[in-house]
Structure formats: structure tokens, C-alpha cells
Design a protein that fits this description.
nine-stranded mixed sheet, f41 fragment of flagellin, N-terminal domain, single chain, alpha+beta, three-stranded antiparallel sheet
Length: about 550
């Protein structure tokens, strides 16, 4: 049996030494292979589990670092979107500003244009409705305000007067004046076109036949192409007039109104039937029935009726106009400084304003809106004022800018919808929580904002009035400020997240270095130990060989 074999003490000791040395060699080789001094809890429980704890925390932070990286990309994407939105809102603001500048620099043109070709007419008296001796009166009460003595502002049609000569006669009325208050011409179609030459100098046109009566006066206006403009107006003094008014201003102004009882300036609460004008006489009277109707319309249509009752106030009159279907097209107001009622055309489509009054009895309405203020008595009579409008080129430019503005709004909404990263869109109202430590107690909440055009307060533009343009301009300015403020907030959040990313990376490196410090081996030291152990093994093997030779020498005795 092998267990019955007895080794000498020297051999046994050498064998044990070799075994122990091999065990040390194995441990040292493992440390060299793994680079760790502590490979298991058996090597050093405190260091092993301490290292594991540090590594676990580093792993948790590493997973958070992935979320931080996603957050950084989300914020970067939102920042790109904000930059695009800033450019687009700035563009919208620029477009609205261009529209405002266009309107501000454009001059209002007040003109009427006939619809009869006079270019080839050698003698306009050959036209049905035109007779020798017919007259056109051009009345204005503004020339005296600049100390100019008005000339005879009328022309008389003579036999053999051609269309071109008619134009010359009208333009000759400017002779002796320091400016042209009227400019007449024939259009490409041969239509007679007359426009005012000076701002705030309205001109009234009155057509008087050589045999004056309603029918003949109207025939004269129609024969010259002004059937749509000229209105039959009853003066209240037994005669009628066929006339209309041309004014570069877009605002009708009443007389300066006073309280008849106190001679104090009128207010919005003043009752119309108790007011007087500059001549100290009642200009509204016998308004005691709902059948006393004042009508106001635009462009010879869209007429609304206002019941002129005895207790109707200035403010009530204004409210009825603004609350009617004409609201947004014209706007009535009361100028408290001048005590005048104003009716302003605010929509660019308004070319003329018509007023009329009908009554079932003797009544008067005397606003003084037009160039030749008139008393309206019983009956149906009408005045038409052609106000200053912008030329077609200006209006076409405004419409083009309106289209451009709305295209930008659409682009803003599209940019907002497309600015997302991994399902997070901070420009569409999404929020983002970024966690910075392993127990999720430290975090940053990044609140998104919905930046669609509507949410920015940018509504589809309709540049029909100066107010529309100014509102669009103000809204674009406000939207631009909102986008810029959100961009600043994003930049601050981005800086925080980026700083925390750097901090977390450094923390992870520190934790891993600490974990390594607890378990890593000194490879230089371990290499030296292995070399020493290998030398010991060789010496032990030699000693074992010597011990075996001693036992062999005994056998030689036999």
C-alpha cells in the first residue's frame, strides 16, 4: 500500500515546501492574470465588498449618464428649433413692418372714374342727355382756409366740345391757384377720371342741366359716365341736386356740436335733438318717431338703418353704427377735443360712404358730414362721399405681404411639429425630467412650451385695415420675445445639464478609481514575488533530489 511507504523527514519537508510554494505561485499568477489583488471575498472581504459598492454606484451613475446624454440631445434639438422659430418670427415681424411702412408711406388717392368712352367723341353735346349750356359745378369750402379766393369753379358745355376739351376745361380751373385741386384725364378706355390734387381739399360735384330738373340733371351725369356716383339729393328748399363728393380723407367729420341749452361742447351722453351747430341753431329737430330713419352704407351697398328717436344720444348713434354689419368696415367715434362725430373707413375695400335720411313728417338731420352740409327734410335723399383710397399697386403689395405673412405662420407650426428627439418635443409642450443621482432625488425639470403659431398669438393675417396690420406687427413682436425668452431658458438648462454630465463623468471615474484602489494588484510587486516563488520551487526541487540520493546510498550497502 502506498500509505505504508515511509518518507524521510527531509523528503517530506521538501515536498510540503514545494506544495506551499506552488499554492503561492498559483495565487500570484492569478493576480497577474486578473490584475487584481482581491479576486474574491475570501481574499479580503472588506476591500472586495467596498470595491463592489463603489462599482455599483458607478454603474448606476453610468445608466443615468445615458439619460443625461439623451436630455442634452433633446435640448439641443429644441435649441435648433428655437433658432429657426426666431428667424421665422423675425421674418413675420419684418413682413408686418413692411406692410405698415407701405401703408404709412402711401398716399390716399380720391378719384372717380366714369364708364362712358369719351375719347372719340368730337362733340359731347351729341350724347343723349348732354345739351349746350349744361354745367358742372365744383364746390369746395377749403380754399378760403389758406386765404385763396376761389375762382368760378364751374364749367359750361358748349357746342363742339370734345372729350379731350372737357378734360382741359376741368384742369383749367386750377389756373391762378398755387396747387392743382383737381386733376382730370381720360383713361385707356376713354373714361373721364377726376381726382383731387391736394389732400384734405374735398370737392363737391353738382350736375345742372340747361333745363334743370331731376331727370335732366341725372341724364347729364349719366351721359358723362357717372350714373353710379351721382345721387339725387333733396335740399329742402324746393329744389333738388344731382351731386357727389370727392375727398382724399377717409374720415367724415360732423359739425362741431354744442348743447343748445348751455352752449357747452357736446359729449357722448348728449341727446342729438338738443344739439346745435356753429350757427347757433338746432340742427336735429322733430325726431320723435321710429319712422325718422338715417341710413348709412358703403360702396352703394351694405346699408344699415338707424332710428333717429328724440332721445337718441351721440354715443347711442355711434354704438349703432359700430354694432351693425358695417363694424370693421367703418368705425364711428366722437372726438372729445373738437366735439365732432367722425366716421372713418378702416377697411381698405371701402371706396365710398353714402348717407340718407327719410321721415314720415317734417324733420331735420344736419350732421354736416359732407363738403356742402345739407339739411335732410322729409322725403328720400342721398349723399355719396368718395373717400381717399390707396392705389391698386399699394393694395396689391399689401395682399402679397399678407400671403407671405400667412406662409410664415404655417412654417412656424411645421417647425414646431418637427422639432423632436426620441419622442420628446419641448416646442410642442412636452416636458423633460433629467435625473442626476442614483436615488433620483436630484433632478432638473425642463418645461416645454407649445410654440405653434396660434399658441404664439400669431393669427392668420387679413391686412384689410391699418389696425389689422398694427395688430399683426404687435403680435409678431410679442411672439419674437416669447421665443427668445424660451431660448434663454433652454440655454440655461442646457448649461446645467452639460455641467452635470461632466460632473457625473468625473464622479464615475473617481468611483471606479476608488474601487480599483481596493482590489487591484501591484503588477511589479506580483511579478517579483512570482520570480522569487519560482526560484524557491527550483531550490525545493533540488533539495528533494538531494534527499532522495541519500536514501539511495543506503541501498548500496546491500
Amino acid at each position: 500500500m502506498g500509505s505504508d511507504i515511509a518518507l524521510g523527514s527531509a523528503s517530506a519537508n521538501n515536498l510540503l515546501s514545494i506544495k506551499n510554494t506552488q499554492s503561492l505561485v498559483d495565487k500570484t499568477s492569478l493576480r497577474l492574470a486578473t490584475g487584481l489583488e482581491v479576486n474574491s471575498a475570501l481574499d479580503n472581504p472588506s476591500s472586495f465588498f467596498g470595491s463592489r459598492t463603489l462599482q455599483s454606484r458607478a454603474g448606476d451613475l453610468q445608466r443615468l449618464l445615458d439619460g443625461i446624454a439623451v436630455a442634452i440631445r433633446s435640448v439641443q434639438q429644441a435649441t435648433i428649433g428655437v433658432d429657426a422659430l426666431s428667424q421665422l418670427t423675425q421674418q413675420a415681424h419684418t413682413i408686418a413692418q413692411s406692410a405698415s411702412d407701405t401703408i404709412s408711406s402711401a398716399e390716399r388717392v380720391s378719384a372717380v372714374e366714369g364708364n362712358v368712352d369719351l375719347s372719340d367723341v368730337a362733340d359731347i353735346t351729341d350724347l343723349s342727355g348732354v345739351n349746350v349750356g349744361d354745367q358742372i359745378f365744383f364746390s369746395t369750402n377749403s380754399l378760403t382756409t389758406v386765404n385763396i379766393t376761389p375762382p368760378a369753379l364751374s364749367i359750361t358745355i358748349a357746342a363742339g366740345t370734345s372729350g379731350n376739351e372737357l378734360v382741359k376745361q376741368i384742369n383749367d380751373l386750377n389756373t391762378g391757384l398755387p396747387f392743382n385741386f383737381l386733376n382730370a384725364s381720360l383713361t385707356e378706355e376713354g373714361f373721364l377720371r377726376i381726382e383731387t390734387g391736394t389732400e384734405d381739399f374735398p370737392v363737391g360735384f353738382t350736375f345742372v342741366s340747361s333745363t334743370p330738373n331731376d331727370a335732366n340733371n341725372l341724364d347729364l351725369a349719366r351721359a358723362l359716365g357717372f350714373s353710379e356716383q351721382a345721387q339725387l339729393r333733396a335740399t329742402g328748399f324746393g329744389t333738388n341736386e344731382v351731386q357727389f363728393t370727392l375727398s382724399t380723407s377717409n374720415t367724415l367729420r360732423s359739425f362741431q356740436l354744442f348743447e343748445a341749452a348751455t352752449n357747452e361742447a357736446a359729449t357722448k351722453s348728449s341727446v342729438l335733438s338738443q344739439l346745435e351747430g356753429p350757427a347757433d341753431g338746432l340742427i336735429f329737430f322733430s325726431l320723435d318717431s321710429t319712422n325718422d330713419i338715417f341710413e348709412i352704407g358703403i360702396n352703394n351697398e351694405n346699408t344699415v338703418s338707424i332710428a333717429m328717436t328724440s332721445n337718441l344720444t351721440v354715443g347711442g348713434f355711434i354704438e349703432q353704427i359700430n354694432g351693425s354689419s358695417l363694424g370693421g368696415l367703418i368705425e364711428a367715434d366722437f372726438d372729445e377735443e373738437t366735439s365732432q362725430i367722425t366716421i372713418e373707413a378702416v377697411d381698405f375695400s371701402v371706396e365710398s360712404i353714402q348717407t340718407s335720411f327719410t321721415s314720415d313728417g317734417l324733420a331735420a338731420v344736419f350732421f354736416g358730414f359732407n363738403i356742402s352740409p345739407s339739411i335732410y327734410f322729409t322725403g328720400s335723399d342721398e349723399d355719396s362721399v368718395f373717400i381717399g383710397t390707396f392705389d391698386d399697386e399699394t393694395l396689391d403689395s399689401i395682399r402679397s405681404l399678407e400671403t407671405d405673412f400667412n406662409n410664415v405662420l404655417e412654417a412656424i407650426t411645421e417647425i414646431t411639429q418637427d422639432t423632436s428627439f426620441k419622442g420628446v418635443n419641448l416646442l410642442a409642450g412636452d416636458s423633460l425630467n433629467v435625473f442626476f443621482n442614483e436615488d433620483l432625488s436630484n433632478r432638473l425639470s425642463i418645461e416645454g412650451t407649445n410654440f405653434g403659431a396660434t399658441n404664439l398669438g400669431l393669427e392668420e393675417a387679413s391686412f384689410r385695415t391699418v389696425e389689422d396690420i398694427e395688430q399683426a406687427l404687435a403680435r409678431a413682436e410679442e411672439a419674437l420675445q416669447q421665443v427668445r425668452q424660451f431660448g434663454i431658458r433652454l440655454a440655461n438648462n442646457f448649461s446645467i445639464v452639460e455641467t452635470r454630465e461632466t460632473f457625473t463623468n468625473s464622479t464615475i471615474n473617481t468611483l471606479l478609481a476608488g474601487a480599483d484602489d481596493l482590489v487591484q494588484a501591484d503588477l511589479n510587486e506580483e511579478g517579483a514575488i512570482l520570480l522569487a516563488l519560482q526560484t524557491r520551487q527550483e531550490l525545493a526541487t533540488t533539495a528533494l533530489s538531494l534527499a532522495s540520493q541519500q536514501q539511495e546510498n543506503i541501498f548500496t550497502l546491500f
